[in-house]
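All the exercises in this workshop are built on plain-text protein records. Sequence and backbone structure share a record, each on its own labelled line. The question running through the whole workshop is how a given chain folds. The record below serves as our worked example for the rest of this section.
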Amino acid sequence: MDNPYTGKISQKGQLVIPAAIRKALGLDKGSKVSFEVKNNEVIVKKLPTALDWSNLIAELPEEKVEIDKNGQYDPKKSPNFHDWMVNG
């Protein structure tokens, strides 16, 4: 999206985002965006939806870890736990 696009501010202060930008960002009716003013420019960012978060969480690995009363776990049952705790 190297081409500059222009929009127009309505009497109510509403801004129409050009269709090409809406399509590129996946903005639909009801989509939420954030605005940031930086160096005399306005930065508009699409806010993640609940579905975006759900899809992100679905990609996270899952491993059940049972910790005993002494704070120990079985590394054979939870082989990735140590690496996750150390490296994140």
Notes: The chain has a mean pLDDT of 86.
